[in-house]
Amino acid sequence: MRALCGLIVAIAVALSSAALADERGTQDEAKAMALKAVEYIKSAGPEIAYKAFTERAPGWADRDLYVFVVRDDGLTVAHGGSAVLVGKNLSNLKDVDGKPFILECLAMKAPGWVEYKWRNPQSQAVESKISYVVPLNDTVVGVGAYKQ
Questions:
Q1: Domains of the chain, CATH where assigned
Q2: Rounded to two decimals, what is the model's pTM?
Q3: Of 22, 51, 81, 124, whose CB neighbour count within 10 A is largest?
Q4: What are the tens digits of pLDDT across the range 98-138?
């Protein structure tokens, strides 16, 4: 009987872990969305694009993936994870470990990855995250994936 209970618990844990993995975006998906967002800004214009990103319009939010855009001076102009951050200067923001990850994003001269910890809008927990960041004119455009 104990062996059967142990097996049932093991199966339940495996199934819930698989379900959680399906609810998370991948690094490849984050990179693809960031590159797509850059092209959308170029074609639709910043005003339309930033609004779509922040409002999580179709195609700009997928599970825990969303677009954020920060100007070189640190002002957030779009944020699909938390609209209340739009209009706020985040240049001095640090993660829970004290890492100034926004400054690291703003220092990027070429597209690349930045790692930090951030609140997951799905789980509400602070988790390790890696964002693909693309410098564009006077901004950086990013999409991050929570590490699994």
A1: 25-146 (3.30.450.20)
A2: 0.82
A3: 81
A4: 999 999 999 999 999 999 998 887 788 999 999 999 999 99
